[in-house]
Amino acid sequence: MKAPQDIILRPVITEASMENVQSRKYTFKVAKDANKIEIAQAVEGLFPGVKVARVNTVSCRGKFKRMGRTAGYTASSKKAIVTLAEGSKTIEFFDSMI
Questions:
Q1: How far is CA 77 from CA 25, 30, 59, in A?
Q2: How far apart are CA 44 and CA 2, in angstroms?
Q3: What's the angle, vertex CA 8, arms to CA 23 and CA 10, rounded to 5?
Q4: pTM value?
C-alpha cells in the first residue's frame, strides 16, 4: 500500500480550480498509477475531518516541445478533482487562497 504523500503529489492552483472551491471541488496532481479509491483514501488520510463524496480523474498527455533541432515531449500527468461530502470539513489550505 502506498503512503498518501506518494499518491497526492501537489495541489493545482489555477483560476478554474479556485472557482470550483466554492462548490467543494478541489484539484490535485496525483500519481499516474493511482485509482479513484486510492485517491479518496489519500485525501481523507492527509486532511483529517474531510469526507470524500466523488473523485473524477483526468489523464493529461505530455505536450510536444522543440528547442532548435531537438524535439521531444514533456512528462504526462494525472489530475484528480475531488468533491467533498456535505457534512465534511473544508480543506484549509485552499480556503486561505481565496
A1: 19, 8, 6
A2: 14
A3: 75
A4: 0.89
Residues 6+ apart with CB under 8 A from 58: 78, 79, 80, 81
Q: Assess contact for 7 and 42: CB atoms under 8 A.
A: yes
Q: Is 49 left (phi over 0), alpha (psi -120 to 50) or beta?
A: left
Cβ–Cβ < 8 Å for 83, 53? yes
Cell 498509477, residue located: 33
By the 8 A CB rule, do 42 and 11 touch?
no
Residue 31 carries which DSSP code? -
Give tens-digit pLDDT for 42-91: 999 999 999 999 999 999 999 999 999 999 999 999 999 999 999 889 88
